Amino acid sequence: MLRFILRRLLQMVLAFFGTTLIVYALMFAGQGDPIQALAGERPVTAAQRAYLTEKYHLDATGVGGFFYRYFDYLGGLVRGDLGQSLTGRQISDILAAAWPVTVKLAVIAMAVTVIFGVTSGVIAAIRRSGVFDHATLVLTLLVLGIPTIVLAPLAQYFLGVRWPVFPPTAGAQPSFYALLLPGIVLGSLSLATALRLTRTSVTENLRADYVRTARSKGLRRRRIVGVHVLRNSLIPVVTFLGVELGNLMGGAIITEGVFNVPGVGFNLFRGIRTEDGPLVVGIVSVLVVVYLLSNLVVDVLYAVLDPRIRYE
Amino acid sequence: MRVRRLAAWAALPLAVTLGLTACGSGGGGGSADDSDAAVRIEIAEPQHLVPTNTNETSGSQVLSALFSPLVDYDDANKPHEVAAEKVTTSDNKVWTIKLKPGYTFHNGEKVTADNYIDAWNYGAYAPNGQNSSYFFEKVAGYDDLQGESPKATTMSGLKKVDDLTFTVTLSQPYVDFKSMLGYTAFYPLPKAAFSAPGVLAEGYEQSPIGQGPFKMKGNWQHDAKVEVERYDAFPGQQPKVGGVEFRIYQQPTAAYADVLSDNLDVIKTIPTENLSTAATDLGDRFQQSPASSLQVLAFPTFQEEFSKPEVRKAISMAIDRDEITKSIFKDSQQPARSFVSPVVAGYRENTIGTAGAFDPVKAKAMYEAAGGPKKIELSYNGDGGHKDWIDATCNQLKANLGVDCVGTAEPKFADLLTKLKQKQPVGLFRMGWVMDYPSMENYLGPLYSTTGSSNYYGYSNPEFDKLLAEGARAATEDEAIKKYQAAEDLLAQDMPVIPLRYGQNNFGHSTKVKNVHVDLFDRVDLLKIERA
């Protein structure tokens, strides 16, 4: 197991450099005139242009310029320096402020998914073709069908403005309560998928031979479902949740925007809008690490869930 | 068995993290409603909070709380002294600025002439890369501070007379210099802002020290808020609120939802998608005030097919401005028929005359007689919500001129500018202008003079340049206005751009505040706002 983890960590280093190279290249290729983008529609003075060009090596163009800037960036990265955004802020500071908020939001969303999604999935599977099963089917289809860009403002309007159950936006240093509504909205999509997955998986396992054996042995139903069936059914769900955790950490650009949550997605959106290359690459680099780590955790969890899976 | 026992823990890590977070943020329920007297105003994340480096509205809104300007503008948009006792000149070239005594910075330093001179020199010095450095280009000696290794670090035109008096010598006489002094770039900086002469102290921007009615409360919390509280030693007019919390929003729709539920007090710009319901949502708390912006469609006059003024006038006559402002903009903007905005002294209504009157029949006849192109392209930046009115304009041109018309979106305005600089054929293109200071000259010089910084249409008229120069040298403001108006009449003959709409501030406020005014620079007047 240890060797497996080590090997994966080494692969991660390669994957990390590969992805940053791609992201950097994309940002480099897509960049028009970042200085003008920063200034909006105002004219940029020659002095300001010269200052920013020199500071960010914007005059280095073409293939040679790309590698020069990429290695310059990598050099800083290795020293733990993520660089400065085009507005002169340390990217590490931006991330340090944004991450805790996004992690909080992601955890709430994840909790909503696990608690409601997995539980309802199990219930729906046990009472297959019952009222609950059909009701959840309709509900999840509905949620899956509505994109976040519609769902988020609707939830904000009805639960924040019309009937003020929740504060409509989160804002600075959001409290747990203020993050609850965005968390539910964010979690609702993965909730629906998790519910369908759990239901299918549990249904299948309920028909398995070992369940019949257990039942004829006289085991209590609660123990059969709670220990034997659930553990075997969780593998696809855990895979899904692991990837989803990476997605959630990536910052929900739409949800964070609608609810004014100053997290990673919020900053990523601004970086993209203002063509702030260093900021976008910095955020994405960290996201890559988060993805790789959450996938590693998922793989390790497989072995724990199913002892037949062994890593050498 | 060991493995099996481990399994019981497999589903737990999530639950554990959850539990920890729940503990960490426990007791944080409910919205903060501490009844101190701060009002909450929406802004976007400022780019900078150094006066000479701030040229967007969010930053200048915050700085307007922390600093008191030398001059401000009255209802007729003429400048009057605020932090200055007197701004005088005899020849429009040497200006004497005498400061009011008694002003102190928030750290206790007395405000002196040096504070202004140091700040302006810092702003003008090219290697500092300040966004607003061009505001100082009229001061004598500005050129010596430009380039990669400038000859000087201070402008020769700034001279201290005594602690409260200094003179500014311009390289050319300029009649509107007093109007310029109201802009953000002309605030002073305390000695504490500099770590060495000409070097801004690290971290000054995080908690700027000014001499205005409010002082910083804590640091600038990026992406979250900037809080300021009343500065009791401020000798000028005291604000009516104890403090202001500038809340940072990424999307105006979020701010709008907050105003609806009294979680935020002022939203300066109601998002377009909410404009149609704003009047019913907010009632009389939805307000409008004139803004300085002007939207135009510009011609690349260097292109053969648009070189005739008749073609340009015919296109202008074929556009029904009133219909577009009404149906597309829901009256959030006003139709424009002049080259300067109504917010500056010297504005006259309808200076483009018949070219501004919607007359499809005459327009078509004129267009065909002048041999206008069969196909018209309208270029715009796709990120600014311009598609609707561009498409509407195109449809009008199709119907009224019998031409083929397409709207072409460039990703960003910067991309459009790049193409224009390379003189690529982009067809007509949209442009917007927001004034730097209230003066007719600011609507004419940068946009239409041969060397203007935003003259992207290649318009050049020596007569126009001459009138502008004469206006700047004029003895009085009224004489200057006459020259500028003559220059505007030339534009009306040549029509290098089609004026379309004047902007308006469409703002709203919560039930908790009253007396909300948004000025020409899209800033909430912090001295007038009160708690309801």
TrEMBL record, chain A:
<feature type="transmembrane region" description="Helical">
    <location>
        <begin position="281"/>
        <end position="305"/>
    </location>
</feature>
<feature type="transmembrane region" description="Helical">
    <location>
        <begin position="105"/>
        <end position="126"/>
    </location>
</feature>
<feature type="transmembrane region" description="Helical">
    <location>
        <begin position="12"/>
        <end position="30"/>
    </location>
</feature>
<feature type="domain" description="ABC transmembrane type-1">
    <location>
        <begin position="99"/>
        <end position="302"/>
    </location>
</feature>
<keyword id="KW-1003">Cell membrane</keyword>
<keyword id="KW-0813">Transport</keyword>
<dbReference type="InterPro" id="IPR035906">
    <property type="entry name" value="MetI-like_sf"/>
</dbReference>
<protein>
    <submittedName>
        <fullName>Peptide/nickel transport system permease protein</fullName>
    </submittedName>
</protein>
<feature type="transmembrane region" description="Helical">
    <location>
        <begin position="138"/>
        <end position="159"/>
    </location>
</feature>
<feature type="transmembrane region" description="Helical">
    <location>
        <begin position="179"/>
        <end position="197"/>
    </location>
</feature>
<keyword id="KW-0472">Membrane</keyword>
<dbReference type="InterPro" id="IPR000515">
    <property type="entry name" value="MetI-like"/>
</dbReference>
<keyword id="KW-0812">Transmembrane</keyword>
<keyword id="KW-1133">Transmembrane helix</keyword>
<dbReference type="Pfam" id="PF00528">
    <property type="entry name" value="BPD_transp_1"/>
</dbReference>
<comment type="similarity">
    <text>Belongs to the binding-protein-dependent transport system permease family.</text>
</comment>
UniProtKB/TrEMBL annotation, chain B:
<dbReference type="InterPro" id="IPR030678">
    <property type="entry name" value="Peptide/Ni-bd"/>
</dbReference>
<protein>
    <submittedName>
        <fullName>Peptide/nickel transport system substrate-binding protein</fullName>
    </submittedName>
</protein>
<dbReference type="InterPro" id="IPR039424">
    <property type="entry name" value="SBP_5"/>
</dbReference>
<feature type="domain" description="Solute-binding protein family 5">
    <location>
        <begin position="82"/>
        <end position="454"/>
    </location>
</feature>
<dbReference type="Pfam" id="PF00496">
    <property type="entry name" value="SBP_bac_5"/>
</dbReference>
<dbReference type="InterPro" id="IPR000914">
    <property type="entry name" value="SBP_5_dom"/>
</dbReference>
<keyword id="KW-0732">Signal</keyword>
<feature type="signal peptide">
    <location>
        <begin position="1"/>
        <end position="22"/>
    </location>
</feature>
